[in-house]
């Protein structure tokens, strides 16, 4: 009788029944099994700055953070986050009441949605969306309402009329991500102003995921939604050390918001992890104080890698959407004769020795994302060059005359 119970009810609660193993786990396992280059999951293949890593070692040795840190985060990190928001965006936050450290941006999203959403509330999110958004809305008992970013003139664009039409009397919250994963879109000032006007007009809360804030290219500008009129008191801004400093395994994220919002999110967060990453918090405090040259150098390095991979993908025959931000490039596989991203990605490791992610996993409207595939370029240049070499084998060959 091992493995049997007396109940026919499934083990997994019905709110999570639609969510199986994440596509990232599946594709990363496929990369290991086939020896393929993994351009699927968005993690760097080199560590971030040596001085930041040494700061973590120093904290460990000095006994800082080896026991439970304070619930809101260590004071040094909260002060550094507030200083970062002031330096880059002119936003003033009280480190004691308006900053909360989380176990990565993923916990920040979960805690914010669990705190702010009740059963029956609608959450409007930009589609495609990072996969944890849907799961967190479901766990909160909310209803997700996707607004689809659509391809237009080489980029994915937000239809502001569609966004406005998605808001109903049941809408509680807008979930915004810019720079946007997976499309690489960076919402422009006029788009953000329209989102802000809508939120104020309809008295909506906004959770904004800004983890790629320092990865914007080609004159694009990251503008925090909280900096727009009427948004300071209704916006929860999410940041993360993982993407900016290439220490994704440390899982150090944060929110900045008005005191009442921070208190609400903390009420949920304290029953998730309570606290995490004690010594790493001290190291991230030092990382956030690095000179501006670090941030611009990091961006410039990723821009060169974007250009390398985008050119290679175009040469291989993909339709390429050149990202204005993040470290992902979305491609259209239809020029290669395919229209099913799942089948394409599952076959790609054997065909070309490269792993990618099908964008359809980020959509409620799966058909909208079916022909799109995402590649990550946060890898060493030599790895990207080898991936390009392998992918060019996919390029259609002209028929013999």
How would you sum up this structure, described in words?
This protein is of the alpha/beta class. The chain is built from 14 helices and 15 strands. The chain has helices at 23-34, 50-62, 75-89, 104-116, 131-139, 160-166, 189-201, 241-245, 259-269, 278-288, 292-315, 341-352, 366-369, 381-391; strands at 37-38, 99-102, 122-127, 143-148, 150-152, 155-157, 171-177, 205-209, 235-240, 253-256, 319-321, 328-332, 354-355, 357-358, 372-376. A seven-stranded mixed β-sheet has the order 2-10-9-8-7-3-4, sandwiched between helices. Strands 11-12-15-14 form a four-stranded antiparallel β-sheet. Helix 4 crosses helix 9. It is globular, with a radius of gyration of 21 Å. The termini are far apart. The relative contact order is 0.17. The model has no long low-confidence stretch (mean pLDDT 95).
Q: What is the 3D shape?
A: globular
Number of strands: 15
Radius of gyration: 21 Å
Proportion in β-strands: 15-25%
The separation of the N and C termini measures 67 Å
Q: Which parts are unreliable, with pLDDT below 50 for 5 consecutive residues or more?
A: none
Largest sheet: 7 strands, mixed
Q: Helix- and strand-based class?
A: alpha/beta
User: In DSSP terms, counting alpha (H) and pi (I) runs of 4 or more, how many helices?
Assistant: 14
Offer a few descriptive terms.
4-stranded antiparallel β-sheet, 14 helices, 401 residues, 7-stranded mixed β-sheet, globular, alpha/beta
List the helices and strands and how they pair.
Elements: H1 23-34, E1 37-38, H2 50-62, H3 75-89, E2 99-102, H4 104-116, E3 122-127, H5 131-139, E4 143-148, E5 150-152, E6 155-157, H6 160-166, E7 171-177, H7 189-201, E8 205-209, E9 235-240, H8 241-245, E10 253-256, H9 259-269, H10 278-288, H11 292-315, E11 319-321, E12 328-332, H12 341-352, E13 354-355, E14 357-358, H13 366-369, E15 372-376, H14 381-391
């Amino acid at each position: 009788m091992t493995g049997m119970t007396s109940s026919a009810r499934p083990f997994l609660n019905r709110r999570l029944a639609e969510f199986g193993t994440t596509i990232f786990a599946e594709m990363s396992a496929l990369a290991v099994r086939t020896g393929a280059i993994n351009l699927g999951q968005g993690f760097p293949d080199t560590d971030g700055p040596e001085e930041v890593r040494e700061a973590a070692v120093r904290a460990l040795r000095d006994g800082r953070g080896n026991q439970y840190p304070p619930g809101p985060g260590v004071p040094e990190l909260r002060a550094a986050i507030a200083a970062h928001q002031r330096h880059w965006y002119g936003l003033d936050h009280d480190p004691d009441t308006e900053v909360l450290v989380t176990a990565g941006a993923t916990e920040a999203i979960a805690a914010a949605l669990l705190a702010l959403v009740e059963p029956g509330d609608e959450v409007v999110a930009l589609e495609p969306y990072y996969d944890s958004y849907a799961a967190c809305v479901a766990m909160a008992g909310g209803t997700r309402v996707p607004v689809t970013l659509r391809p237009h003139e080489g980029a994915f664009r937000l239809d502001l009329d569609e966004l406005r039409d998605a808001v109903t009397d049941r809408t509680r919250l807008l979930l915004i991500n810019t720079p946007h994963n997976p499309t690489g879109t960076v919402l422009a000032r006029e788009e953000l102003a329209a989102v802000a006007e809508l939120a104020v007009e309809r008295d909506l809360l906004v959770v904004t995921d800004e983890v790629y804030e320092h990865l914007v290219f080609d004159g694009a500008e990251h503008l925090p939604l909280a900096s727009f009129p009427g948004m300071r008191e209704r916006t929860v801004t999410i940041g993360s050390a993982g993407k900016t400093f290439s220490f994704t395994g440390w899982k150090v994220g944060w929110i900045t918001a008005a005191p009442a919002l921070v208190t609400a999110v903390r009420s949920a967060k304290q029953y998730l992890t309570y606290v995490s990453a004690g010594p790493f918090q001290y190291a991230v405090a030092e990382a956030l104080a690095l000179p501006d040259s670090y941030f611009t150098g990091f961006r410039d390095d990723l821009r060169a890698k974007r250009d390398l991979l985008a050119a290679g993908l175009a040469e291989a025959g993909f339709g390429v959407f050149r990202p204005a931000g993040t470290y992902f490039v979305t491609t259209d596989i239809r020029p290669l004769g395919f229209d099913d991203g799942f089948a394409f990605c599952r076959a790609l490791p054997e065909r070309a020795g490269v792993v990618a992610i099908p964008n359809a996993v980020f959509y409620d409207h799966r058909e909208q994302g079916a022909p799109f595939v995402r590649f990550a370029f946060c890898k060493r240049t030599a790895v990207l060059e080898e991936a390009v070499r392998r992918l060019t084998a996919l390029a259609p060959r002209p028929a013999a005359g």
